[in-house]
Amino acid sequence: MTLNSNARNRPRGLFGLAGMALVALALLLLALPHPRADEPVVHVLDIDGPIGPAIKDYMVRGIEQAEQQGARMVVLRMDTPGGLDASMRDMISKILNADVPVATWVGPAGARAASAGTYMLYASHVAAMAPSTNLGAATPVQIGGGGGEEPERPRTPLERARDALEDQAGSPSSEESDAGESAADEGADSEPDPVPEPEQPATPGSATERKVLEDASAYIRGLADRHGRNAEWAERAVREAVSLTASEALEINVIDLVVESLSELLDAVDGREVRMADGTRLLDTAGARIEVIEPDWRSRFLGVITNPSLAYILLMVGIYGLILEGYNPGALVPGVIGGISLLLALYAFQILPVNYAGLALMALGFALIAVELFVPSFGILGIGGVLAVVFGSIILMDTDVPGFVINTGLIAAMGVTAALTFFALIYLVARSHRNPRVSGTEALVGHRAESIADFADGKGRVHVEGEDWSASGPDSIRSGDCVEIEAVDGLVLQVGPVTPSSRD
Protein backbone atom coordinates (compact mmCIF):
# COMPACT_ATOMS: atom_id res chain seq x y z
CA MET A 1 0.00 0.00 0.00
CA THR A 2 2.84 2.45 0.81
CA LEU A 3 4.54 1.77 -2.55
CA ASN A 4 1.37 2.47 -4.52
CA SER A 5 0.78 5.69 -2.58
CA ASN A 6 4.29 6.94 -3.37
CA ALA A 7 3.77 6.10 -7.04
CA ARG A 8 0.54 8.11 -7.07
CA ASN A 9 2.14 11.11 -5.33
CA ARG A 10 5.13 11.23 -7.70
CA PRO A 11 3.25 12.83 -10.67
CA ARG A 12 1.77 15.41 -8.33
CA GLY A 13 5.26 16.41 -7.20
CA LEU A 14 6.44 16.75 -10.79
CA PHE A 15 3.46 18.94 -11.68
CA GLY A 16 4.16 21.06 -8.62
CA LEU A 17 7.79 21.61 -9.65
CA ALA A 18 6.74 22.49 -13.19
CA GLY A 19 4.22 25.00 -11.88
CA MET A 20 6.81 26.65 -9.65
CA ALA A 21 9.23 26.90 -12.58
CA LEU A 22 6.58 28.59 -14.72
CA VAL A 23 5.76 31.07 -11.96
CA ALA A 24 9.47 31.90 -11.53
CA LEU A 25 9.84 32.41 -15.30
CA ALA A 26 6.83 34.71 -15.37
CA LEU A 27 8.19 36.80 -12.50
CA LEU A 28 11.55 37.03 -14.28
CA LEU A 29 9.92 38.24 -17.48
CA LEU A 30 7.89 40.82 -15.55
CA ALA A 31 11.04 42.06 -13.85
CA LEU A 32 12.82 42.68 -17.18
CA PRO A 33 12.51 46.21 -18.58
CA HIS A 34 9.87 46.45 -21.29
CA PRO A 35 9.40 49.35 -23.66
CA ARG A 36 6.24 51.29 -23.06
CA ALA A 37 3.70 51.47 -25.84
CA ASP A 38 4.06 55.27 -25.98
CA GLU A 39 7.88 55.28 -25.74
CA PRO A 40 9.46 56.88 -28.84
CA VAL A 41 11.64 54.48 -30.82
CA VAL A 42 14.16 55.18 -33.57
CA HIS A 43 15.22 52.31 -35.83
CA VAL A 44 18.83 52.12 -36.99
CA LEU A 45 19.80 50.29 -40.21
CA ASP A 46 23.46 49.61 -40.98
CA ILE A 47 24.45 50.26 -44.61
CA ASP A 48 27.93 48.79 -44.50
CA GLY A 49 29.68 47.83 -47.71
CA PRO A 50 28.82 48.06 -51.42
CA ILE A 51 25.19 48.90 -52.17
CA GLY A 52 23.57 46.02 -54.02
CA PRO A 53 20.44 43.86 -54.08
CA ALA A 54 21.00 42.49 -50.56
CA ILE A 55 21.48 45.94 -48.98
CA LYS A 56 18.46 47.24 -50.92
CA ASP A 57 16.24 44.41 -49.68
CA TYR A 58 17.41 44.93 -46.10
CA MET A 59 16.83 48.70 -46.16
CA VAL A 60 13.45 48.63 -47.91
CA ARG A 61 12.03 46.02 -45.55
CA GLY A 62 13.60 47.83 -42.59
CA ILE A 63 11.76 51.06 -43.46
CA GLU A 64 8.52 49.14 -43.94
CA GLN A 65 8.96 47.55 -40.51
CA ALA A 66 9.53 51.00 -38.98
CA GLU A 67 6.35 52.27 -40.63
CA GLN A 68 4.32 49.35 -39.27
CA GLN A 69 5.70 49.74 -35.74
CA GLY A 70 5.26 53.52 -35.66
CA ALA A 71 8.92 54.47 -35.24
CA ARG A 72 9.67 58.18 -34.94
CA MET A 73 12.54 58.02 -37.42
CA VAL A 74 14.83 55.66 -39.32
CA VAL A 75 18.57 56.31 -39.21
CA LEU A 76 20.81 54.85 -41.92
CA ARG A 77 24.26 54.39 -40.41
CA MET A 78 26.32 54.44 -43.60
CA ASP A 79 29.83 53.44 -44.62
CA THR A 80 29.88 52.55 -48.32
CA PRO A 81 32.25 52.89 -51.30
CA GLY A 82 29.26 53.07 -53.66
CA GLY A 83 27.23 50.47 -55.44
CA LEU A 84 24.86 49.59 -58.25
CA ASP A 85 22.74 52.33 -59.81
CA ALA A 86 19.55 50.24 -59.95
CA SER A 87 19.71 49.31 -56.26
CA MET A 88 20.54 52.90 -55.28
CA ARG A 89 17.55 54.32 -57.16
CA ASP A 90 15.18 51.80 -55.56
CA MET A 91 16.47 52.76 -52.11
CA ILE A 92 16.14 56.49 -52.84
CA SER A 93 12.61 55.99 -54.12
CA LYS A 94 11.73 54.25 -50.86
CA ILE A 95 13.27 57.11 -48.83
CA LEU A 96 11.41 59.82 -50.74
CA ASN A 97 8.04 58.07 -50.43
CA ALA A 98 8.41 56.71 -46.87
CA ASP A 99 5.83 57.52 -44.19
CA VAL A 100 8.61 57.80 -41.60
CA PRO A 101 11.45 60.36 -41.73
CA VAL A 102 14.79 58.94 -42.81
CA ALA A 103 18.09 60.38 -41.61
CA THR A 104 21.46 59.28 -43.01
CA TRP A 105 24.46 59.47 -40.70
CA VAL A 106 27.87 58.77 -42.20
CA GLY A 107 29.67 57.22 -39.28
CA PRO A 108 31.43 56.30 -37.16
CA ALA A 109 34.69 58.20 -37.68
CA GLY A 110 36.57 56.94 -40.71
CA ALA A 111 33.44 56.04 -42.67
CA ARG A 112 32.59 57.40 -46.11
CA ALA A 113 29.60 57.96 -48.38
CA ALA A 114 31.18 57.70 -51.82
CA SER A 115 29.44 57.46 -55.16
CA ALA A 116 25.94 56.01 -54.54
CA GLY A 117 26.22 56.97 -50.86
CA THR A 118 26.36 60.66 -51.83
CA TYR A 119 23.06 60.37 -53.70
CA MET A 120 21.42 58.70 -50.71
CA LEU A 121 22.76 61.38 -48.38
CA TYR A 122 21.19 64.06 -50.57
CA ALA A 123 17.88 62.16 -50.73
CA SER A 124 17.53 61.74 -46.95
CA HIS A 125 15.33 64.06 -44.90
CA VAL A 126 18.27 64.68 -42.57
CA ALA A 127 21.89 64.45 -43.76
CA ALA A 128 24.52 64.15 -41.03
CA MET A 129 28.13 63.05 -40.80
CA ALA A 130 30.56 62.18 -38.06
CA PRO A 131 33.92 63.99 -37.82
CA SER A 132 36.74 62.45 -39.90
CA THR A 133 34.35 61.17 -42.58
CA ASN A 134 33.99 62.13 -46.23
CA LEU A 135 31.58 62.03 -49.13
CA GLY A 136 31.62 62.66 -52.88
CA ALA A 137 33.18 61.06 -55.99
CA ALA A 138 29.71 60.48 -57.42
CA THR A 139 30.69 60.18 -61.09
CA PRO A 140 28.86 57.23 -62.69
CA VAL A 141 31.20 54.33 -63.40
CA GLN A 142 31.59 53.36 -67.03
CA ILE A 143 29.10 50.64 -67.89
CA GLY A 144 30.37 47.60 -69.73
CA GLY A 145 33.70 46.92 -68.08
CA GLY A 146 35.28 50.35 -68.16
CA GLY A 147 37.19 51.92 -70.95
CA GLY A 148 37.10 55.37 -72.41
CA GLU A 149 38.41 58.58 -70.94
CA GLU A 150 37.14 60.10 -67.74
CA PRO A 151 35.29 63.44 -68.01
CA GLU A 152 37.74 66.33 -68.03
CA ARG A 153 37.55 68.63 -65.02
CA PRO A 154 36.42 72.15 -66.03
CA ARG A 155 39.13 74.70 -65.31
CA THR A 156 38.55 77.57 -62.92
CA PRO A 157 38.57 81.21 -64.19
CA LEU A 158 41.95 81.81 -62.52
CA GLU A 159 43.44 78.79 -64.28
CA ARG A 160 42.01 79.85 -67.64
CA ALA A 161 43.36 83.41 -67.23
CA ARG A 162 46.78 82.09 -66.28
CA ASP A 163 46.86 79.77 -69.29
CA ALA A 164 45.84 82.63 -71.60
CA LEU A 165 48.62 84.85 -70.24
CA GLU A 166 51.14 82.05 -70.67
CA ASP A 167 49.98 81.58 -74.28
CA GLN A 168 50.35 85.29 -75.01
CA ALA A 169 53.84 85.41 -73.46
CA GLY A 170 54.97 82.15 -75.03
CA SER A 171 56.79 83.40 -78.20
CA PRO A 172 56.68 87.22 -78.54
CA SER A 173 58.22 88.88 -81.61
CA SER A 174 60.84 91.63 -81.43
CA GLU A 175 58.31 94.32 -82.31
CA GLU A 176 55.96 93.08 -79.62
CA SER A 177 58.84 93.07 -77.16
CA ASP A 178 59.80 96.65 -78.02
CA ALA A 179 56.19 97.73 -77.84
CA GLY A 180 55.89 96.01 -74.51
CA GLU A 181 59.01 97.75 -73.16
CA SER A 182 57.81 101.17 -74.33
CA ALA A 183 54.39 100.56 -72.83
CA ALA A 184 56.08 99.60 -69.59
CA ASP A 185 58.12 102.83 -69.66
CA GLU A 186 55.10 104.99 -70.40
CA GLY A 187 52.90 103.56 -67.67
CA ALA A 188 54.05 100.79 -65.43
CA ASP A 189 50.94 101.07 -63.33
CA SER A 190 48.50 100.43 -66.15
CA GLU A 191 46.41 97.30 -65.72
CA PRO A 192 46.41 94.57 -68.38
CA ASP A 193 43.36 94.11 -70.52
CA PRO A 194 40.97 91.52 -69.17
CA VAL A 195 41.44 88.10 -70.69
CA PRO A 196 38.25 86.71 -72.25
CA GLU A 197 37.22 83.38 -70.82
CA PRO A 198 36.98 80.63 -73.40
CA GLU A 199 33.77 78.75 -73.71
CA GLN A 200 33.55 75.63 -71.58
CA PRO A 201 33.98 72.57 -73.78
CA ALA A 202 31.26 70.03 -73.97
CA THR A 203 31.56 66.92 -71.88
CA PRO A 204 33.93 64.52 -73.69
CA GLY A 205 33.18 60.90 -74.31
CA SER A 206 30.68 58.91 -76.32
CA ALA A 207 27.01 59.74 -76.60
CA THR A 208 26.13 57.02 -74.10
CA GLU A 209 28.63 58.35 -71.57
CA ARG A 210 27.26 61.89 -71.93
CA LYS A 211 23.71 60.66 -71.49
CA VAL A 212 24.61 58.79 -68.30
CA LEU A 213 26.49 61.78 -66.93
CA GLU A 214 23.71 64.26 -67.73
CA ASP A 215 21.09 61.96 -66.24
CA ALA A 216 23.09 61.54 -63.03
CA SER A 217 23.67 65.31 -62.77
CA ALA A 218 19.98 66.11 -63.16
CA TYR A 219 19.05 63.38 -60.70
CA ILE A 220 21.29 64.63 -57.88
CA ARG A 221 20.33 68.28 -58.53
CA GLY A 222 16.69 67.31 -58.09
CA LEU A 223 17.49 65.63 -54.78
CA ALA A 224 19.43 68.70 -53.64
CA ASP A 225 16.61 71.10 -54.55
CA ARG A 226 14.08 68.97 -52.71
CA HIS A 227 15.79 69.45 -49.33
CA GLY A 228 17.43 72.84 -49.96
CA ARG A 229 21.02 71.62 -50.13
CA ASN A 230 23.95 72.73 -52.25
CA ALA A 231 23.04 71.71 -55.80
CA GLU A 232 26.12 73.21 -57.47
CA TRP A 233 28.55 71.11 -55.47
CA ALA A 234 26.34 68.05 -56.04
CA GLU A 235 26.73 68.52 -59.79
CA ARG A 236 30.49 68.95 -59.37
CA ALA A 237 30.61 65.69 -57.41
CA VAL A 238 29.06 63.97 -60.43
CA ARG A 239 30.98 65.73 -63.21
CA GLU A 240 34.36 66.22 -61.53
CA ALA A 241 34.35 63.40 -58.93
CA VAL A 242 35.26 65.83 -56.13
CA SER A 243 34.99 64.93 -52.43
CA LEU A 244 34.51 66.79 -49.15
CA THR A 245 35.24 66.24 -45.50
CA ALA A 246 32.46 66.50 -42.93
CA SER A 247 33.39 70.02 -41.82
CA GLU A 248 33.68 71.27 -45.40
CA ALA A 249 30.34 69.72 -46.31
CA LEU A 250 28.65 71.46 -43.38
CA GLU A 251 30.22 74.79 -44.29
CA ILE A 252 28.86 74.85 -47.86
CA ASN A 253 25.42 73.42 -46.99
CA VAL A 254 25.92 69.94 -48.40
CA ILE A 255 24.83 68.31 -45.11
CA ASP A 256 22.77 69.48 -42.14
CA LEU A 257 24.78 68.35 -39.13
CA VAL A 258 28.12 67.07 -37.90
CA VAL A 259 27.59 64.92 -34.79
CA GLU A 260 29.72 62.43 -32.92
CA SER A 261 27.11 59.77 -32.14
CA LEU A 262 23.57 58.63 -32.80
CA SER A 263 22.27 59.92 -29.47
CA GLU A 264 23.70 63.37 -30.27
CA LEU A 265 22.01 63.19 -33.67
CA LEU A 266 18.61 62.50 -32.11
CA ASP A 267 18.95 65.43 -29.75
CA ALA A 268 20.11 67.75 -32.54
CA VAL A 269 17.27 67.01 -34.97
CA ASP A 270 14.50 67.17 -32.35
CA GLY A 271 12.01 69.82 -33.42
CA ARG A 272 13.45 70.13 -36.96
CA GLU A 273 10.97 70.46 -39.80
CA VAL A 274 11.51 68.09 -42.72
CA ARG A 275 9.77 67.71 -46.05
CA MET A 276 7.91 64.41 -46.47
CA ALA A 277 6.02 63.04 -49.45
CA ASP A 278 2.69 64.22 -47.93
CA GLY A 279 3.92 67.56 -46.55
CA THR A 280 6.14 68.85 -43.78
CA ARG A 281 6.63 67.18 -40.39
CA LEU A 282 8.27 68.12 -37.10
CA LEU A 283 10.69 65.55 -35.73
CA ASP A 284 10.18 64.37 -32.16
CA THR A 285 13.26 62.31 -31.32
CA ALA A 286 14.55 63.69 -28.00
CA GLY A 287 15.08 60.85 -25.56
CA ALA A 288 13.97 58.21 -28.09
CA ARG A 289 15.13 54.65 -27.60
CA ILE A 290 17.56 53.46 -30.27
CA GLU A 291 16.78 50.02 -31.71
CA VAL A 292 19.25 48.52 -34.17
CA ILE A 293 17.54 46.32 -36.77
CA GLU A 294 19.81 43.45 -37.78
CA PRO A 295 19.54 41.77 -41.21
CA ASP A 296 17.45 38.61 -41.11
CA TRP A 297 18.33 35.28 -42.68
CA ARG A 298 16.85 36.29 -46.04
CA SER A 299 19.02 39.39 -46.36
CA ARG A 300 22.11 37.49 -45.21
CA PHE A 301 21.46 34.67 -47.69
CA LEU A 302 20.88 37.16 -50.51
CA GLY A 303 24.10 38.93 -49.58
CA VAL A 304 26.04 35.66 -49.79
CA ILE A 305 24.78 34.39 -53.15
CA THR A 306 24.90 37.84 -54.82
CA ASN A 307 28.62 38.07 -54.17
CA PRO A 308 29.95 37.97 -57.76
CA SER A 309 32.88 35.67 -56.91
CA LEU A 310 30.66 33.16 -55.12
CA ALA A 311 28.05 33.31 -57.89
CA TYR A 312 30.83 32.59 -60.39
CA ILE A 313 32.02 29.59 -58.35
CA LEU A 314 28.43 28.27 -58.16
CA LEU A 315 28.13 28.60 -61.93
CA MET A 316 31.36 26.67 -62.55
CA VAL A 317 30.46 23.94 -60.05
CA GLY A 318 26.97 23.64 -61.53
CA ILE A 319 28.06 23.22 -65.13
CA TYR A 320 30.99 20.90 -64.36
CA GLY A 321 28.68 18.80 -62.19
CA LEU A 322 26.20 18.38 -65.04
CA ILE A 323 29.02 17.53 -67.45
CA LEU A 324 30.32 14.81 -65.10
CA GLU A 325 26.80 13.45 -64.70
CA GLY A 326 26.54 13.27 -68.49
CA TYR A 327 29.81 11.32 -68.69
CA ASN A 328 28.74 8.95 -65.91
CA PRO A 329 24.93 8.56 -66.00
CA GLY A 330 23.57 7.33 -62.70
CA ALA A 331 26.29 8.84 -60.52
CA LEU A 332 23.58 11.18 -59.09
CA VAL A 333 25.88 13.16 -56.75
CA PRO A 334 27.45 15.39 -59.48
CA GLY A 335 24.06 15.93 -61.07
CA VAL A 336 22.28 16.90 -57.84
CA ILE A 337 25.04 19.24 -56.64
CA GLY A 338 25.48 20.70 -60.12
CA GLY A 339 21.76 21.34 -60.61
CA ILE A 340 21.35 23.13 -57.27
CA SER A 341 24.52 25.20 -57.77
CA LEU A 342 23.52 26.18 -61.30
CA LEU A 343 20.04 27.35 -60.24
CA LEU A 344 21.49 29.45 -57.40
CA ALA A 345 24.05 30.97 -59.77
CA LEU A 346 21.39 31.84 -62.36
CA TYR A 347 19.26 33.47 -59.66
CA ALA A 348 22.23 35.55 -58.52
CA PHE A 349 23.11 36.59 -62.07
CA GLN A 350 19.48 37.54 -62.68
CA ILE A 351 19.76 40.37 -60.13
CA LEU A 352 23.42 41.25 -60.82
CA PRO A 353 24.67 43.39 -63.73
CA VAL A 354 25.73 40.54 -66.03
CA ASN A 355 27.14 40.86 -69.52
CA TYR A 356 25.14 38.29 -71.47
CA ALA A 357 27.77 38.10 -74.18
CA GLY A 358 30.21 36.83 -71.54
CA LEU A 359 27.63 34.35 -70.26
CA ALA A 360 27.00 33.07 -73.80
CA LEU A 361 30.74 32.74 -74.38
CA MET A 362 31.06 30.65 -71.22
CA ALA A 363 28.14 28.44 -72.29
CA LEU A 364 29.82 27.86 -75.68
CA GLY A 365 33.08 26.98 -73.95
CA PHE A 366 31.45 24.40 -71.70
CA ALA A 367 29.64 22.90 -74.70
CA LEU A 368 32.94 22.50 -76.56
CA ILE A 369 34.52 20.82 -73.52
CA ALA A 370 31.57 18.42 -73.24
CA VAL A 371 31.73 17.50 -76.94
CA GLU A 372 35.51 16.94 -76.89
CA LEU A 373 35.33 13.38 -75.55
CA PHE A 374 32.74 12.37 -78.15
CA VAL A 375 34.36 13.91 -81.24
CA PRO A 376 37.95 13.04 -82.27
CA SER A 377 39.25 16.61 -82.62
CA PHE A 378 42.73 15.96 -81.17
CA GLY A 379 42.09 18.50 -78.38
CA ILE A 380 41.09 21.46 -80.56
CA LEU A 381 37.54 21.62 -79.19
CA GLY A 382 38.71 21.30 -75.61
CA ILE A 383 41.37 24.01 -75.90
CA GLY A 384 38.89 26.32 -77.59
CA GLY A 385 36.36 25.60 -74.85
CA VAL A 386 38.81 26.47 -72.07
CA LEU A 387 39.73 29.75 -73.79
CA ALA A 388 36.07 30.63 -74.32
CA VAL A 389 35.31 30.01 -70.63
CA VAL A 390 38.23 32.21 -69.52
CA PHE A 391 37.39 35.10 -71.86
CA GLY A 392 33.70 34.88 -70.96
CA SER A 393 34.57 34.97 -67.26
CA ILE A 394 36.63 38.14 -67.72
CA ILE A 395 33.76 40.08 -69.33
CA LEU A 396 30.99 38.41 -67.32
CA MET A 397 30.32 41.24 -64.84
CA ASP A 398 29.05 44.36 -66.64
CA THR A 399 30.30 46.94 -64.12
CA ASP A 400 33.41 48.29 -62.44
CA VAL A 401 31.66 49.13 -59.17
CA PRO A 402 33.84 48.17 -56.16
CA GLY A 403 32.57 44.99 -54.57
CA PHE A 404 30.75 43.79 -57.69
CA VAL A 405 33.60 42.44 -59.80
CA ILE A 406 34.97 38.93 -60.06
CA ASN A 407 38.46 38.44 -58.68
CA THR A 408 40.87 37.94 -61.59
CA GLY A 409 42.90 35.52 -59.50
CA LEU A 410 39.81 33.33 -59.13
CA ILE A 411 39.25 33.39 -62.90
CA ALA A 412 42.88 32.43 -63.51
CA ALA A 413 42.68 29.58 -60.98
CA MET A 414 39.48 28.24 -62.56
CA GLY A 415 41.00 28.46 -66.05
CA VAL A 416 44.21 26.68 -65.05
CA THR A 417 42.24 23.98 -63.23
CA ALA A 418 40.02 23.40 -66.26
CA ALA A 419 43.02 23.26 -68.59
CA LEU A 420 44.94 20.81 -66.39
CA THR A 421 41.88 18.58 -66.01
CA PHE A 422 41.27 18.61 -69.76
CA PHE A 423 44.89 17.77 -70.62
CA ALA A 424 44.89 14.97 -68.03
CA LEU A 425 41.83 13.44 -69.72
CA ILE A 426 43.48 13.77 -73.14
CA TYR A 427 46.60 12.01 -71.80
CA LEU A 428 44.59 9.13 -70.34
CA VAL A 429 42.62 8.69 -73.54
CA ALA A 430 45.79 8.73 -75.64
CA ARG A 431 47.47 6.17 -73.39
CA SER A 432 44.48 3.86 -73.61
CA HIS A 433 44.68 4.00 -77.40
CA ARG A 434 48.33 2.89 -77.27
CA ASN A 435 47.50 -0.32 -75.34
CA PRO A 436 47.04 -3.51 -77.42
CA ARG A 437 43.44 -4.30 -78.13
CA VAL A 438 42.38 -7.84 -77.27
CA SER A 439 38.95 -9.39 -77.22
CA GLY A 440 37.29 -12.79 -77.03
CA THR A 441 39.32 -15.88 -76.21
CA GLU A 442 42.61 -14.19 -77.13
CA ALA A 443 42.31 -12.17 -73.95
CA LEU A 444 42.94 -15.36 -71.95
CA VAL A 445 46.58 -15.65 -73.05
CA GLY A 446 48.82 -15.01 -70.08
CA HIS A 447 46.14 -15.71 -67.48
CA ARG A 448 46.43 -18.35 -64.79
CA ALA A 449 44.18 -21.40 -64.64
CA GLU A 450 43.69 -24.34 -62.30
CA SER A 451 43.96 -27.92 -63.48
CA ILE A 452 40.88 -29.95 -62.52
CA ALA A 453 42.14 -33.29 -63.82
CA ASP A 454 45.41 -35.11 -64.33
CA PHE A 455 46.83 -34.68 -67.81
CA ALA A 456 47.20 -37.86 -69.84
CA ASP A 457 48.45 -38.18 -73.40
CA GLY A 458 48.90 -34.39 -73.38
CA LYS A 459 45.24 -33.68 -72.66
CA GLY A 460 43.32 -32.48 -69.62
CA ARG A 461 40.86 -29.88 -68.31
CA VAL A 462 41.37 -26.51 -66.56
CA HIS A 463 39.17 -23.99 -64.81
CA VAL A 464 39.57 -20.28 -65.71
CA GLU A 465 37.33 -17.22 -65.36
CA GLY A 466 34.50 -19.35 -63.95
CA GLU A 467 34.51 -21.75 -66.92
CA ASP A 468 35.91 -25.24 -67.61
CA TRP A 469 38.04 -25.58 -70.73
CA SER A 470 39.71 -28.46 -72.57
CA ALA A 471 43.46 -28.05 -72.48
CA SER A 472 46.61 -29.58 -73.89
CA GLY A 473 49.92 -29.70 -72.07
CA PRO A 474 52.59 -31.87 -70.44
CA ASP A 475 51.54 -35.08 -68.65
CA SER A 476 53.32 -33.84 -65.54
CA ILE A 477 50.39 -31.50 -64.74
CA ARG A 478 48.26 -32.93 -61.92
CA SER A 479 44.85 -31.99 -60.61
CA GLY A 480 44.98 -28.80 -58.54
CA ASP A 481 48.16 -27.49 -60.17
CA CYS A 482 48.33 -23.84 -61.26
CA VAL A 483 49.05 -23.52 -64.96
CA GLU A 484 49.54 -20.60 -67.34
CA ILE A 485 47.65 -20.22 -70.61
CA GLU A 486 50.13 -19.94 -73.48
CA ALA A 487 47.85 -19.97 -76.53
CA VAL A 488 44.28 -20.60 -77.67
CA ASP A 489 43.64 -23.14 -80.44
CA GLY A 490 39.93 -22.97 -81.20
CA LEU A 491 38.22 -24.28 -78.09
CA VAL A 492 41.38 -25.84 -76.62
CA LEU A 493 43.75 -23.97 -74.36
CA GLN A 494 47.46 -24.69 -74.61
CA VAL A 495 48.84 -24.50 -71.09
CA GLY A 496 52.12 -25.08 -69.36
CA PRO A 497 53.38 -25.25 -65.82
CA VAL A 498 54.05 -21.95 -64.04
CA THR A 499 57.75 -21.20 -64.41
CA PRO A 500 59.76 -19.54 -61.60
CA SER A 501 59.93 -16.28 -63.59
CA SER A 502 56.20 -16.20 -64.18
CA ARG A 503 55.58 -17.24 -60.58
CA ASP A 504 57.59 -14.22 -59.40
Characteristic key phrases:
alpha/beta, six-stranded parallel sheet, 504 residues, 49% helix
How are the secondary structure elements laid out?
Elements: H1 2-31, E1 41-48, H2 53-69, E2 73-79, H3 85-96, E3 102-106, E4 112-114, H4 116-123, E5 126-129, E6 134-136, H5 157-168, H6 174-186, H7 207-226, H8 231-239, E7 243-245, H9 246-251, E8 257-258, H10 262-269, E9 273-276, E10 279-282, E11 289-292, H11 297-305, H12 308-327, H13 333-351, H14 356-372, H15 380-394, H16 408-434, E12 448-451, E13 459-464, E14 467-472, E15 482-489, E16 492-497, H17 500-503
Short description:
By secondary structure, the protein is of the alpha/beta class.
Description:
There is one protein chain. The protein is of the alpha/beta class. It has 17 helices and 16 strands. The strands form 4 sheets. A 6-stranded parallel beta sheet has the order 8-5-3-2-1-11, sandwiched between helices. It has a 5-stranded mixed β-barrel with strand order 12-13-14-16-15. The chain has a 3-stranded mixed beta sheet with strand order 4-6-7. Helix 2 runs parallel beside helix 3, helix 3 packs parallel to helix 4 and helix 7 packs antiparallel against helix 8. The longest helix is centred in the first third of the chain and has 30 residues.
Unreliable sequence segments: 143-154, 171-203
- Overall strand count: 16
- Arithmetic mean of pLDDT: 79
Distance between the termini: 84 Å
| Global outline | elongated
Strand line-up of the largest beta sheet? 8-5-3-2-1-11
Proportion of beta-strand residues: 15-25%
Spatial extent as radius of gyration: 40 Å
Tell me about the largest β-sheet.
Answer: 6 strands, parallel
| Number of alpha- plus pi-helical segments | 17
Q: Give the helix level as a range of percent.
A: 40-55%
- The SS-based structural class is alpha/beta
